[in-house]
Amino acid sequence: MNPEKLQKMTEGVRIGGKGTQRRKKKIVHRTATTDDKKLQSTLKRMGVNSIAGIEEVNMIKSDGSVIHFNNPKAQASLTANTFAITGHSETKQLTELLPGILNQLGGDSISSLKKLAESMQWNKPTGDADMGNDDDDDIPELVDTNFEEVSEK
């Protein structure tokens, strides 16, 4: 084995200085639960209060996508101007949530929704344009064969 490569591999596994034992494996103790506990303790120090009765939270991003929380845990501290929303989130497009989200839209979102509707109208063919179009390219021509004779054979 190449001695340079071996030296490079052993650099990161030594616990102390030269002559100490090597670590068998690198253990990372940080998990999501410890992060959650740290966050909750920080929020408790800020004096947040839990808000009950919130069924859904929608955060609308500037690109038109929506971060949707269903039955989240909401906490707020008005003195610190801090809101914390925790729970399972899904990133969806604005069009997927459209009928129920209209009352939550602000001025910016309504203008982007109008632009979206106009672009959909441009892409949608109108009925008048199809009426004047007499192309029968998609309908095959009828062949001059007697099908009864062919089926009897």
Give a quick summary of the entry.
It contains six helices and six strands, in the order ααββββββαααα. The chain has 153 residues and is of the alpha+beta class.
Describe this protein's structure.
Helices cover 37% and strands 19% of the residues. The model has no long low-confidence stretch (mean pLDDT 76). A hairpin with a 4-residue loop joins strand 2 (56-60) and strand 3 (65-70). It is built from six helices and six strands; from the N terminus they run H-H-E-E-E-E-E-E-H-H-H-H. With 153 residues, it is α+β, with helices and mostly antiparallel strands. It starts with a helix and ends with a helix. The strands form two sheets. It has a three-stranded antiparallel sheet with strand order 1-4-5, covered by helices on one side. The protein has helices at residues 3-10, 32-46, 98-101, 107-123, 127-132, 147-152; strands spanning 49-51, 56-60, 65-70, 73-77, 82-86, 89-93.
Task: Present the secondary structure layout.
Elements: H1 3-10, H2 32-46, E1 49-51, E2 56-60, E3 65-70, E4 73-77, E5 82-86, E6 89-93, H3 98-101, H4 107-123, H5 127-132, H6 147-152
Antiparallel strand pairs: 1-4, 2-3, 3-6, 4-5
pLDDT averaged residue by residue: 76
Strand count, sense and barrel status of the largest sheet are: 3 strands, antiparallel
Strand content: 15-25%
Helix content: 25-40%
- The number of strands is 6
Computed CA radius of gyration, to the nearest angstrom: 32 Å
- What's the N-to-C terminus distance? 78 Å
Low-confidence stretches: none
Taken in chain order, the helices and strands follow as HHEEEEEEHHHH
Any idea what the shape is? flat
What's the total helix number? 6
Strand order of the largest sheet: 1-4-5
* Structural class assignment: alpha+beta
